[in-house]
C-alpha cells in the first residue's frame, strides 16, 4: 500500500508547475516535500486526493488510479486520506465540534451520538479536550491548526497530508505541531506527507525528505543524507543561500 506519483505534469495556462514529478510514499512513513514558495508543493499534494488531475503522468493511491477516478470514488478515497489545509480553513460560523465532525456527518451509518463521541476523541488527541462549543474566532492560530488536525483524523484516515502545518507559527507552537505530526504516526499509525518550507520541521518529523525544484524532485533522502548532500540546490535551500541556487539576488 502506498502513494505514488509518476512523472506528473501539470500546467496552468502556459505556466508549467509540475514537470515530471515522481515520488513514492510507503505505508508507515512520514515524508516531507520541501521547496521554495510557489514551486508547486500544494499543487502536488492536491493531486493525491484528486483535487487536481494531472495533464500527463499518473497518481496511484493503494493501487487505484486517482487521476482517472470518477468523482463519486474520490469522495470515498478522501475518507482514507485526511487533508490538513494550509490555513486551517475552518468554517467561522460553525462551532469547533461541528467543524471537526464535518466529514463524519457525510457517513450515513454514523449516529449523532457516535459522531459526538468521535469528535471528542479527536479533540482529545490534539489536546483540545472540551473545545466543542467554542467558535473558531475565540481560539488562537495554533489551536485552529490543531482543530484542522482533529478534523482531518476524524474519519480515521490511513494517510494524512499536511500543507504547511507550521507556516506562520512561532517556534514553540511549531514544536507542538511537529510533535503532533509524530504522534499521529506513532499512535494512529498514519502514513504522512508533509509540505513545508521549514527545514527544521522537515528534518524533525520525516523519515525522508524530497526537494521539489523546477517541477521535479531534485533530491530525496533521509534527513541525514540531505544534510550531507553536496548538490548546490540542496545546499542553497538548507543553508538559506539563494545565490547557490542560481536565483537573482
Ligand atoms: N488552481 C490554480 N490555477 C492557476 N494557477 C495555479 C493554481 N494552483 C496553483 N497555481 C499556480 O501554481 C504555482 C504553484 O503553486 P503552489 O503549489 O500553491 O505553490 P507552493 O509550492 O507555494 O505550495 C503558483 O504559481 C500558483 O500560482
Ligand atoms: Mg502551498
Plain-language structure description:
Helices cover 37% and strands 25% of the residues. Helix 3 (96-105) crosses helix 4, helix 3 runs parallel beside helix 5 (141-153) and helix 4 (112-125) crosses helix 5. The strands form two sheets. Strands 6-7-8-3-9-10 form a six-stranded mixed sheet, sandwiched between helices. Strands 2-1-4-5 form a four-stranded antiparallel sheet, covered by helices on one side. It has one domain: Rossmann fold (3-Layer(aba) Sandwich). By secondary structure, it is α/β, with parallel strands linked by helices. The protein is globular, with a radius of gyration of 18 Å. Bound molecules: adenosine-5'-diphosphate (ADP) and magnesium ion. Adenosine-5'-diphosphate (ADP) binds next to strand 2 and helix 1.
State the main characteristics.
alpha/beta; Rossmann fold; 6-stranded mixed β-sheet; 9 helices; globular; binds adenosine-5'-diphosphate
